[in-house]
Amino acid sequence: MRPYQRFLKKWITTNLHVVNKENFANIAELELHAHQQDHAANTLYAIAQASFHPNYHCRAIADKDGVVGFLMYAAPGAEDEAGDYTIYHLMVDRRHQGRGHGRRAVELALAEIGKHGDVQRIWTSYQPDNAVARELYAACGFTEAGTEEDGELYAVWTPDPY
């Protein structure tokens, strides 16, 4: 098998699964590289936060070998504009980075969010020095739209009108 075929096979098997008691322990064991610690919020905190917000959706990123990452998105809440969704959290375990899992997870999240039917925009944010996140979201069709009060950059994705 050629190297690119191995990559595509690995990439294509990436899926999102609802966080549950069967995959929670695997999610709890996910790690980032030391230099990435400031780029992502604590995953367990995000899961706890979602338990208080019914519009937050936590997903395990998995491939044929098991859980490789975590993603959380939010549907619009009562105080949000209708049709505005947000990807709040995305991380891929340090041992599984560079294999396309992050990009595939974002693409799957966009598709899942799209099933809600009312999507006008999907927002995300990242640290200005996080070149990997910037490139990943740009590759998935996000456009940088400004800087938040805390200094993070925010980007927006809008569905194709056709």
UniProtKB/TrEMBL annotation:
GO molecular function list: acyltransferase activity, transferring groups other than amino-acyl groups
Q: Name one Pfam family in it.
A: Acetyltransf_1
Specify whether Transferase is a keyword of the entry: yes
Q: Which PANTHER family match?
A: L-AMINO ACID N-ACETYLTRANSFERASE (PTHR43617), UPF0039 PROTEIN SLL0451 (PTHR43617:SF2)
The UniProt keywords, alphabetically, are:
Transferase
CDD domains, from UniProt? Answer: NAT_SF
Where does the source fall among the domains of life? Bacteria
Keyword Transferase recorded:
yes
Q: Where is the N-acetyltransferase domain?
A: 14-162
What's the protein here called?
Answer: GNAT family N-acetyltransferase
